[in-house]
Write a structure and sequence with these properties.
This protein is α/β, with parallel strands linked by helices and 292 residues long. 36% of the residues lie in helices and 20% in strands. Strand 10 and strand 11 form a beta hairpin. The chain starts with a strand and ends in a 5-residue tail after the last helix.
């Protein structure tokens, strides 16, 4: 659960400042990505563990509000949910996040959760539940479920998850860090050669990003918009990419589609509530010279 605090600018240490606004919102890479996919017309479900505290209760209600199924969430008593405090600076249009991971037990797939993975068209994972993600990715591989990995952080044991990614979408920071090279283009090629996914898509924030499919490198743009809240833009990109893929788009079209969804999201406050519907994205792309 994110607490978003809008401030004119980041305050100096040991001072006080009046916030412009404060609100609570659901967060997390896969969780927010699933909401984005749901709002774009995709059937989605979250598999994970939550506490029965205020944060956990809020998150379940938030999923349901956006149409994400919650039947395969395990709820535990006496634990603390993952929460974040996020400052949004009007001056720099950037965000600063301080988080508490909570103390929930690790996800271990039960029978119903395993069945959901096996029957899915696409499994979206991140590194926050590494052992559960690896277990689910192995199960997906056995059952023909494609795996999209939102690779944002260099988590422990990540090398054991990467070989199962069919659609590998790392941040530039992750890509350079895991490969040890200095250029994103070289990192994309190295990740493809090392882990053999269907595609590597490196996200580069305001610069857009790079797609590599084993044949050629292709750049895709970041669309220019007036930014109100950049928090969760990457999470939304991954969810929109998943939605585009399930609509049958090729990988490059998925990049343009996801980039547009992420840009529109940044014009509103709140990573989830600001995700547009499909028709809005279609119109936005047409206005920017790109037809779906």
């Amino acid at each position: 659960m994110d607490t978003l605090i809008n401030v004119p600018n980041y305050p100096k240490e040991d001072t006080k400042m009046c916030a412009d606004a404060l609100k609570q919102a659901g967060g997390g890479p896969v969780a927010t990505g699933l909401v984005a996919a749901a709002k774009l017309g995709t059937e989605t479900e979250y598999i994970g563990v939550l506490a029965d505290d205020a944060g956990g209760s809020f998150l379940i209600k938030d999923f349901r509000k956006y149409g994400v199924k919650t039947d395969n969430i395990e709820v535990f008593s006496g634990y603390r949910s993952f929460t974040s405090i996020i400052w949004l600076s009007a001056k720099t249009t950037s965000r600063t996040c301080v988080f508490d991971r909570g103390n929930l037990p690790q996800l271990k797939l039960n029978e119903n959760q395993s069945k959901a993975v096996a029957e899915a068209d696409l499994l979206m994972i991140d590194g926050n539940e590494m052992s559960g993600a690896i277990e689910a990715a192995k199960l997906a591989a056995k059952n023909g479920t494609k795996v999209l990995y939102d690779a944002g952080g260099l988590y422990d044991n990540v090398e054991n998850l990467l070989p199962y990614a069919d659609i590998l979408i790392p941040s530039e920071e992750f890509a350079l860090g895991i490969t040890g090279v200095k250029k994103a283009e070289d990192a994309a090629k190295k990740l493809y050669e090392r882990y053999n996914p269907d595609v590597v898509v490196i996200t580069q924030g305001k610069k857009g990003g790079i797609l590599y499919d084993g044949t050629r490198l292709t750049a895709y743009p970041a669309f220019s918009v007036k930014v109100a809240d950049s928090n969760g833009a990457g999470d939304v990109f991954h969810g929109a990419f998943a939605a585009g893929y399930l609509k049958g788009y090729d990988f490059l079209k998925c990049c343009y589609f996801a980039s547009a969804v992420s840009a529109i999201k940044c014009t509103g406050v709140g990573a989830r509530e600001s995700v547009p519907d499909f028709e809005t994205v279609k119109d936005f792309l047409k206005e920017n010279g790109y037809e779906l």
